[in-house]
């Protein structure tokens, strides 16, 4: 029964055979979203019943996603549209993490934030009371590299936040680069560095790691990452909800973000194969990240329940 | 007097170019390799004194070669740019990273029935076509936009066997996604970078993000490192040595960037001269964190003319 180890263990992941034991041993479940709860805009089978079951057992549910395109409020709406009752306060997107990070370091309110990213980041910055520039509207801006042309940039920008950005262009790269290179003490913050993301259920799409890589290339600086696998969000919600990390199980589909996040944070970890990771990737000799357990999808929790009834 | 043995990791401080050492330099060198952005021109403006200096060097029998990491133009287009600026430089004297990318594929026997996806400008596309390869992307994909609907698949050509990434002021998500899919899903697909310069003087008034940005983006989405054909990689040097029958110890590399131009010269055993007319300032050169010391430094190329009292 006992015997879960939560340190970065090299022992191979175990198939989840006794879900009830796992469920009984933790107080909080943290779920990734893409590939765990939904794929693109489609709910994964059995998710509503599984979440209901966990709630009925008194478990706290938290949703932590690296996807920065929406704010918590907008994610709340997505959950609602899919028929799940999840409140805003249970959702932690990397867009929120960026704003929370700036708050935690007392980023001065008279400084501005330049955003290479989408609406979610802008909304969260606004909610947190920060002034921002950039975002999707700079996606329309063009530059002409001709004699006498100078791009001006706001000297009051004290941080550049970079995340997934489908409206990425050279104007934004230059603006962000000038701020980081020329404004003294300017911070370079990345919401996340995922190489690819499942924007649609059918295929992978270049992720936030791409935009962040671009700015690393032009500034020769490394960013402060607030999303998984950085433990910033884990530490934040442990404090917010007053929970012990050993009482948490992180459930995700990606080894180098979700599972590493859980391990770095000292939690139990469960990999689901309903997203980007296959069993052969998990078992490949090239893979050194072993979750405590793995299973096909989260509704496998229900199968055990049925068995023990 | 024989110059000191070139040591790629030498940290002896750079010497300021003077009348005396300029004369020594000229006598000990048969060829000058010049970077372009920040050395010959800034954006589309010629730097002062260039025409006279190049003429003087030619009149003394020195071979001139122009080696640029800027992949936006082909060699022919660069020859035209030189001509427009009043300088007579032939195509054969120019080695652009666009040309290097095409030559890399040729030298490595890239099958002509495979295609090349280009994240970059017309220069790369032209050089690939001149070398007999089929190029996709480049300027054609500037206006393309990706769609995100559940039943809509972003298609990519399965015959793409290499993705070449260079400076692209028209970078967009469509190109990032196309290149990413080719590298991640087409078996054996090569990832080639023309160069990785972080910034450069694309206009006369300020620095702009360089190819290092676009290459960084593709590294980020593919988790792979590229083969780099431009400076400081020695690929272009090997090419021009074959062409011109020169000894690297009788060559001087003149550039404005330490981690590409000067390192390029040092890696090959050339003498190196840093000019401060581009991206590198005196304080960057002198900063303790800088480990790359050229043999000499001076404000701009035309100082050579001035110091020799020509």
UniProtKB/TrEMBL annotation, chain A:
<dbReference type="InterPro" id="IPR036412">
    <property type="entry name" value="HAD-like_sf"/>
</dbReference>
<dbReference type="InterPro" id="IPR006349">
    <property type="entry name" value="PGP_euk"/>
</dbReference>
<protein>
    <recommendedName>
        <fullName>Phosphoglycolate phosphatase</fullName>
        <ecNumber>3.1.3.18</ecNumber>
    </recommendedName>
</protein>
<keyword id="KW-0378">Hydrolase</keyword>
<comment type="similarity">
    <text>Belongs to the HAD-like hydrolase superfamily.</text>
</comment>
<dbReference type="Pfam" id="PF13242">
    <property type="entry name" value="Hydrolase_like"/>
</dbReference>
<dbReference type="InterPro" id="IPR023214">
    <property type="entry name" value="HAD_sf"/>
</dbReference>
<dbReference type="InterPro" id="IPR006357">
    <property type="entry name" value="HAD-SF_hydro_IIA"/>
</dbReference>
<dbReference type="Pfam" id="PF13344">
    <property type="entry name" value="Hydrolase_6"/>
</dbReference>
UniProtKB/TrEMBL annotation, chain B:
<dbReference type="InterPro" id="IPR036412">
    <property type="entry name" value="HAD-like_sf"/>
</dbReference>
<dbReference type="Pfam" id="PF13344">
    <property type="entry name" value="Hydrolase_6"/>
</dbReference>
<protein>
    <recommendedName>
        <fullName>Phosphoglycolate phosphatase</fullName>
        <ecNumber>3.1.3.18</ecNumber>
    </recommendedName>
</protein>
<comment type="similarity">
    <text>Belongs to the HAD-like hydrolase superfamily.</text>
</comment>
<dbReference type="InterPro" id="IPR023214">
    <property type="entry name" value="HAD_sf"/>
</dbReference>
<dbReference type="InterPro" id="IPR006357">
    <property type="entry name" value="HAD-SF_hydro_IIA"/>
</dbReference>
<dbReference type="Pfam" id="PF13242">
    <property type="entry name" value="Hydrolase_like"/>
</dbReference>
<dbReference type="InterPro" id="IPR006349">
    <property type="entry name" value="PGP_euk"/>
</dbReference>
<keyword id="KW-0378">Hydrolase</keyword>
